[in-house]
Design a protein that fits this description.
The chain is an alpha/beta fold and 330 residues long. It folds into 2 domains: 4-162, NAD(P)-binding Rossmann-like Domain (Rossmann fold, 3-Layer(aba) Sandwich); 165-325, Lactate dehydrogenase/glycoside hydrolase, family 4, C-terminal (L-2-Hydroxyisocaproate Dehydrogenase, Chain A, domain 2). It has helices at 4-12, 31-39, 55-63, 80-84, 108-125, 138-151, 165-179, 214-225, 227-235, 243-260, 303-328; strands at 20-24, 46-51, 70-75, 89-92, 130-133, 160-162, 190-192, 199-201, 265-272, 280-288, 291-295. The strands form 3 sheets. Strands 3-2-1-4-5-6 form a 6-stranded parallel beta sheet, with helices on both faces. Strands 9-10-11 form a 3-stranded antiparallel beta sheet. Helix 2 (31-39) packs across helix 10 (243-260), helix 5 (108-125) packs parallel to helix 6 (138-151) and helix 7 (165-179) runs antiparallel to helix 8 (214-225). It binds nicotinamide-adenine-dinucleotide and (2S)-2-hydroxybutanedioic acid. The site of nicotinamide-adenine-dinucleotide has 32 residues, from helix 5.
Amino acid sequence: MFSSRLISRAFSTGSQCNAKVAVLGASGGIGQPLSLLLKQSPLVTDLALYDIAHTPGVAADLSHINSKARVTGFVGAEQLADALKGADVVVIPAGVPRKPGMTRDDLFNTNASIVRDLAEAAAKNCPKACLAIISNPVNSTVPIASEVFKKAGVYDPNRIFGVTSLDVVRANTFIAEAKGLDPATVDVPVIGGHAGITIIPLLSRANPAVSFPDDKVDALTKRIQDAGTEVVKAKAGAGSATLSMAFAGARFAISLLRGMNGEKVVECAFVKSDVTESTYFATPLVLGKNGLAQNLGIGNVNKYEQELIKNAIPELKASIKKGEDFVNKK
Ligand code: NAD
Ligand code: LMR
């Protein structure tokens, strides 16, 4: 899982890598701080910032930072192909965020077509890139991107990821707070998907090992599942998590680059999967030169966690089908 020490090493040392990262939705609440974090990574050589608005300004601003990544802004659909050509990693935070009272699935009507169109462009211009999809509902947008890549004849399930890293970041933080630990030293795998009950933190597998009474396990699990809604409520109509998501998204993108660079890196993400009845499922994954190198599966879980997995499957299946049908049933 995330090792903060390894991540800070990737942010701060001169590791060798020539990589182009494209951020699609780069002017948004997530896109801007995510691009700032990527600009600080020595693993990034070229940073292509694409959005339907404001990227020239964001790119000009970031380009004055004295780190090696060359920053270029691309604005509007006619510049999308150039943003994507040669990309090794494409991070997609494009799309609308939730307002109080909405579920992530309520974003489907707007975000499904945004992700479909961006995936079509990626399939055409950088079919070998790893896609890191942040746009919600992740449980549907990842199957959408996969179906688009299948239609284009360039599908590789090892290169399409739904970013669930924020759930891991939150689980690490909340467990550390509850136990008085340094959050940077805690690793909690979070499996399943990225919406409500499909978010399944495995507290029994926390590293370092921790134990809580049953009611506390339940309360912590529910807080991790509802953490996105906690931020949406606190922002009171001004959107959802942006800064913590930028942190989590940058860490995931950098982990992909570290894997491509030959390091053994383990991250949880939502991917095509055969470890459960759900055809996509987040589990810990070894990242390598070509994206997903090994799916580590679910591993040992206790009765409480088994029940969480069982309860998540029907919702996951429905969200996946909704995404696949969106692309295939016109
Ligand atoms: P935002 O509205 O601040 O930014 C979205 C950006 O996308 C805007 O700059 C907008 O211009 C751009 N955009 C819209 N259509 C586009 C298109 N066709 N091509 C390129 N860019 C386009 O929203 P935000 O707060 O940055 O959130 C973005 C998405 O990320 C939302 O769907 C949100 O639900 C999701 N999100 C996911 C997670 C996660 O854990 N996976 C966490 C937080 C937010
Ligand atoms: C999150 O978990 O913060 C994101 O999925 C955004 C949201 O809508 O909650």
